[in-house]
Design a protein that fits this description.
By secondary structure, the protein is an alpha+beta fold. The protein contains five helices and eight strands.
Length: about 180
């Protein structure tokens, strides 16, 4: 373990065997208004969907994320990290994987919704070039909280790629991503 906690993480494609553990993290992260098992099983057969898991060297599922690729846009549908692994760069490693995947697939823009109160997530997204372009009023069912709608500029622009490359370099000094 590094000073910040976990020192190595493995990013894998999500499989049906991961879903039981993913639902546990869903409940922990989102309470009773979380995605169901069947939602994740449905996503596994969705041709637009790209889902990943972050696993510890011991094989424990520490987090997961998903995105849909629609034409030249990606929509981050979900991202969550197990509470005991928060603030250990797991979510950041997943965002990096999503962006790398988008580069490979020719996806130019990414979007997502995030709770207006989730300052750590908002800061992570800003670090990776997302900016807020509005809100969805009452978006979250559990407490009627608003969501920020965040977008990137074209990820193939030199300015974006330079920032991304530097962020990844900095991240890799903190955690080894396999």
């Amino acid at each position: 373990m590094s000073l910040t906690g976990i020192s190595q993480i493995f990013i894998t494609k999500m499989s049906t065997e991961d879903i039981e553990h993913i639902v546990e993290i869903e409940k922990e992260a989102y309470g009773e208004h979380h995605w169901s098992k069947s939602s994740f099983y449905d996503e596994m057969s969705n041709k637009l969907a790209h889902y990943y898991c972050a696993k510890t060297p011991e094989g424990e599922l520490a987090g997961y994320a998903g995105t849909w690729h629609i034409l030249d846009e990606g929509h981050i549908t979900t991202i969550a990290v197990k509470n005991k692994y928060l603030r250990q760069h797991i979510g950041e490693a997943l965002v990096v994987k999503i962006l790398e995947d988008c580069y490979k697939e020719g996806i130019k823009y990414l979007t997502l919704e995030v709770r207006v109160s989730n300052i750590p997530a908002i800061n992570l997204y800003k670090k990776y070039g997302f900016t807020s372009l509005g809100t969805r009023k009452g978006y979250y069912q559990d407490n009627n909280e608003d969501a920020l709608i965040m977008w990137t500029e074209n990820i193939f622009y030199d300015k974006f790629k330079t920032k991304f490359t530097q962020n990844v370099k900095n991240l890799k000094t903190l955690i080894e991503i396999k």
